[in-house]
Specification:
The protein is α+β, with helices and mostly antiparallel strands and about 325 residues long. The chain contains 6 helices and 15 strands. The protein has a single domain, classed as HIT family, subunit A, CATH 3.30.428.
Length: about 325
């Protein structure tokens, strides 16, 4: 039966249309990238990218082969480091200079690597690179927020097949982040507890939407999932800032991500997906009620007129069914 479900964080409503339910095999497979194209991210092609910002490599010189993970500026950046903010009003409108940072994290020298095909230590190092880049960019007082995200597949926005993530530093805090923080603050003022911590406790107790967990992290299907097989990945202990996580906990995050991405690929035949880090804004005191997390979204459905017109989403797979499908897939 169709249900309306309310997201407890920001109050967004979702239609879970179980009468239109689909099994994982019913979703269309993502079209493959052409295998014959030139890849600027592959070893030996380092001169085809901008000069690297940092890399995990042995004794090899910068901007050459021998690296394991490499960070470079985006060749076609959404925002640029150079310049001034130059905030001004134009009549009733506001504008500022397009100042920020846009970086590419090349996950591995292996063109078609996935988190679950790489050693767990390597995946941990990818998450360490995220941490190091956030810590470095926090030193630029122009930046207010940093988003880390991965687009895999054409329908998820990827223009290259080679496994990579991206990072964008912004001079403003996004509206969605403001909404989350305000909702967390309101809940904390009412109950003196973190809403994400309460969700984690509830889901572990209920046991119907937890896909994967280990000592430090949990992957769950959100109660009001917007999209089929949407997942949240959260630290079990309350944590305000991703960049405060130590190497040991990032290893556990790597293990969980590897298992989750393996399950998603096996259940859904290698779908396109996005994942993105929701972190606390930079240099902002008073957000102790916030709880950083990743959102993981397989691109199995399209946002159309109804969603744009109402802000509602229609999800054709209930979070409980999605969890059951994913739990059935064993991991190593």
């Amino acid at each position: 039966m169709t249900e309306l479900r309310r997201d407890p964080i920001i109050g967004r409503w979702v239609i879970v249309a179980t009468e239109r339910a689909r099994r994982p095999s019913d979703f269309e497979a993502e079209p493959e990238f052409s295998s014959s194209g030139f890849c600027p991210f592959c070893p030996g092609h380092e001169k085809k990218t901008p000069t690297e910002i940092m890399a995990y490599r042995g004794d090899s010189p910068p901007d050459g082969p021998g690296w394991e993970i490499r960070v470079v500026p985006n060749k076609y950046p959404a925002l640029r480091v150079e310049g001034e903010l130059d905030k001004e009003g134009v009549g009733i409108y506001d504008k500022m200079g397009g100042i920020g940072a846009h970086e590419v994290i090349i996950d591995s020298p292996v063109h078609k690597s996935q988190f679950y095909t790489l050693p767990k230590e390597h995946v941990r190092d990818i998450f360490k690179v995220y941490r190091e880049r956030v810590l470095d960019l926090k030193n630029d007082i122009r930046f207010r927020y940093i988003v880390v995200f991965k687009n895999r597949g054409k329908s998820a926005g990827a223009s290259l097949e080679h496994s990579h993530s991206q990072l964008i530093a912004l001079p403003i805090v996004p509206k969605r982040v403001h909404e989350e923080i305000a909702a967390c603050r309101s809940y904390y003022e009412l109950k003196e507890r973190c809403i994400y911590c309460d969700i984690i406790r509830h889901e572990i107790s209920a046991g119907v939407r937890v896909v994967e967990e280990n000592e430090s992290f949990i992957a769950l299907s959100p109660y009001a999932a917007r999209f089929p097989f949407e997942l949240w990945i959260l630290p079990k202990r309350h944590s305000l800032n991703y960049e405060t996580e130590d190497d040991g906990r990032l290893f556990q995050l790597a293990e969980l991500f590897a298992n989750v991405t393996y399950k998603i690929d096996k259940a859904l035949s290698n779908p396109a997906y996005n994942f993105l880090l929701h972190n606390s804004p930079l240099r902002t005191d008073g957000n102790e009620h916030y709880h950083w997390h990743f959102e993981f979204i397989p691109r199995l459905s399209k946002v159309a007129g109804f969603e744009w017109g109402t802000g509602f989403y229609i999800n054709t797979v209930s979070p409980e069914d999605a969890t059951r499908y994913l739990r059935e897939i064993p991991t190593g």
